[in-house]
Structures are given as C-alpha cells and as structure tokens.
Amino acid sequence: MQTPMRDRNESWRFDDVEVRGRANEVRRGDRAIGVEPKAHAVLLVLLSRAGEAVGREALLDTVWGHRHVTPSVLNRIIAQLRRALGDDAANPKYIQTLHGRGYRFMVKPERVLPDGASQHPETPLDAADAAHEDDDHPMDSADPRNPARPASAPHHPARNR
C-alpha cells in the first residue's frame, strides 16, 4: 500500500502545527520542527487517515515500500514524532498507540488548500471512540458502529467487550 502522490503533496493543520507535504516540512507557529523524511511520511499517512486505526505493517509498507525494515524503526519514528509534537505516549493528545497493532492520529486535522485556506474544521475525535478497540477485528475502518471493523467483516456480538 503506497501513499499516493496526492497524499504526499497535501498539507495539514491541527492546533498550531502545519504539516506541508510537498515541502517536507513540519511547522509549529512560525518555526520549523526538524523531523526525518520518513517521520514526515509517517505523519502524512496518519493525518490522511486521522481517526482510523493504521496498522504497523500498513505504515511500514506504505512508507518503506517492500524493503525489509525492523519494527523498531517505526517505534523510533513514532517517538521522534511525539517529541516534535510535544505528545506523550502515556497520555496522548495526537498519536495513540494501539498496542501490538498500530497507531491512530486522534485529532481531525484541517486539509490546507494551496491558497492557504482550510478545507475542514478541526474537530477532536470522540474520546470514547478513540479509546475503544476490539482486538479481534482487522485494522481498516469502514463500520461506523465499530471503527476497528470493516463493513465487510461479520458482526460477532459475543466477541465484543
């Protein structure tokens, strides 16, 4: 699953942070925040799927392609992003760890249009939805009743907690 060029060129804004796709830049207010190119790419993927659970394998495949990379590389990149954004793994504001599975960007960002205008208002995700995960279902979200289960996945009430 490669990130389409359109996604890599998009810019996003949340709180006082702007992530510029084409410029490979992250800014907080009027100052640039230094992150590695791969960290920038991971952040773009998370922003483009804000509110959704994004699997570790999907991130590795999207950002690193078919090259063999150890999972610790992704751990290091997520830690770098958290430091850059002033986020805390234990009490996340932006990047939530879904243990053993992946990550979720917890704030709905605004897509920044080329003229600098924003396309979507910033709305924090419902904390109950962001915190509730069902370990027995695939990562991609399509079912509005359960963001961890695609619409095509069978519903098993006994498996819900």
Summary, kept brief:
By secondary structure, the protein is α+β, with helices and mostly antiparallel strands.
**Overall outline:** globular
Give the C-level CATH assignment. Mainly Alpha
Q: Rg to the nearest angstrom? A: 16 Å
User: Largest sheet, order of strands side by side?
Assistant: 4-3-2-1-9
Query: How would you characterize the largest beta sheet?
Result: 5 strands, antiparallel
What report would you give on this structure?
Residues 9-107 bind DNA. It comes from Noviluteimonas caseinilytica. The strands form three sheets. The chain has a five-stranded antiparallel β-sheet. It has a three-stranded antiparallel β-sheet with strand order 5-7-6. It has a two-stranded antiparallel sheet with strand order 8-10. It is 29% helix and 20% strand. With 161 residues, it is α+β, with helices and mostly antiparallel strands. Helix 2 (37-48) crosses helix 3 (56-64) and helix 2 packs across helix 4. A hairpin with a 4-residue loop joins strand 2 and strand 3 (25-28). The protein has five helices and ten strands.
Task: Give the secondary structure arrangement, pairings included.
Elements: H1 5-9, E1 11-14, E2 17-20, E3 25-28, E4 31-33, H2 37-48, E5 54-55, H3 56-64, H4 71-85, E6 95-98, E7 102-105, E8 107-108, E9 110-112, E10 123-124, H5 127-131
Antiparallel strand pairs: 1-2, 1-9, 2-3, 3-4, 5-7, 6-7, 8-10
Notable traits:
Arc Repressor Mutant, subunit A, alpha+beta, 161 residues, disordered N terminus, five-stranded antiparallel sheet
